[in-house]
Every structure is written in C-alpha cells, then in structure tokens.
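Running co-folding for magnesium ion.
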Amino acid sequence: MALRYVRVRTTPGQIYYGLLTLDRTVHVLDAPPWLEGEPNGLELSPEDYQLLAPCAPSKIVAVGKNYRAHAAEMGTPVPKEPLLFLKPPTTITAADKEIYYPPQSQRVDYEGELALVISDRACNCTPAQARSKIWGYTIANDVTARDLQKSDGQWTRAKGFDSFCPLGPWVVREISPAARVQTFLNDDPGPVQSAPISDMVFSPDFLVSYISQVMTLLPGDVVLTGTPEGVGEIKPGDHVRVEIEGIGHLQNSVAIRQVATSC
Ligand code: MG
C-alpha cells in the first residue's frame, strides 16, 4: 500500500502532520511532508488523535467542466481553456464530518474529484515544471449549491459555504492515470459517478501550469481537477462517499447545522 500522509489533532489539541501505518499508529513528522518533514520519534495511537483534512491550504483552486461528459450533462460546451474558480479554505471539512446544508439553497449537489496537493511555490511554470510541483493526491467533494450557482451567475456563494469541501482522508504520492473517481450515495451499491482520471480534458500538469500563470501556488495549496458525469442531489440525512483507486475513500454525511452551532 502507498504511504499515507495525514494531519491529525491530538486529544490535548495539538495539530501534527504524520505518516499513517496499517495499524493506524501515526508517526509524527516535524513539518508538513511537502516541506520535507521527517519523523520526530513521536507515535500516536488511534485513541490519541482524530484525523483532520490532510492539509491546510492558503487557497483551493478549482476547475469547472474538466470532463467532457460532465460539461455535456450541464448543457454547456467544454471550455477552450480551464475554467477556474476559488473555494475559501473554510469550506474544508475532514472525512466522516458533516456537510452542512445551507438554508439559502434548495438544491445541493455532490461532485467527486481528484485533488492535487502542491509541494513548492509555483509561479509561471511550464507543464513540465508543474509536474514537480504536484506533491501528492487526495480526494475531494466539491459540494455545490446548484440553484445558487445558476441564479448568482458566478460561483462564489454556491461553492463557498462552510463544509462544502470535504477533503482527505490522506495524501498519497502517486496515482495511476487509469484510477477511477467513483461516487456512491447512501447504501446504493452502484456508483453515481465513475470515470478514469485520464478522461480529464486538461491534465493535472497543464492545470497547475495554467493556474501558476495567474496566481502563485504555495506549498500545501489544493487544486480540484473537476468532476465527472453523474452529479446529483444530496439531502440532509444522506451520506456520500467518493472513492479513488490507489487513495481510498472519503465519506461524509449531510446535516442541517443547528442554529446554536458556532462557526
Ligand atoms: Mg467541481
């Protein structure tokens, strides 16, 4: 199995990056792995920590309509250049945490996606240079208030609610181009989304290069590479699971945030 890089919070509240072993012990690193963190000798047992999203980016840069069949199901052509938008880092939530259904929307959709984690400052990179700026891969759900995306005309509100970017559960260094992104809803055994990442219109290297012509990407930043065909609705009480071969799966339930819950 590929090495799995995690970020955890200990019971006393300390946050660490680490390596997850098969028995769920975490070997703590002295820095984020993309900043060359090394094991510092501290080991955490499963009862001593909870998993957080595996990175804490300065920004999440996402790409719309990067699979032909998804562009078609949205009734739009494939963009001639990558269509970029931002999700604020406050959208991030960890595996097994809740996606909060916002009261402003009547239609919220899942979007299973491959996420890239950036290794090193990336500015004006060629695609060949960009390859070395991709440190690893994880799983994301680009949750979207579809009705607000249509009514607002731009996407900040629809894509930007707190908890609208489940991310994790860990980062791996390598992924096969044949790996499939698959999304499952509730207990239905069949996937609602299933496509190989090789179906992307613009490759990860091209996307990182393209984004780096616009804004400098920083270590630990996240790029969402677009969702395949088969987006659909989630409602409070549902659970949604995104799987990518070679990484694992990311599951979250959908809930209504209690009024008394603080931000
Ligand atoms: Mg998306």
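Result summary
The two ends are 37 Å apart (CA to CA).
The CA atoms of residues 57 and 187 lie 32 Å apart.
Job closed.
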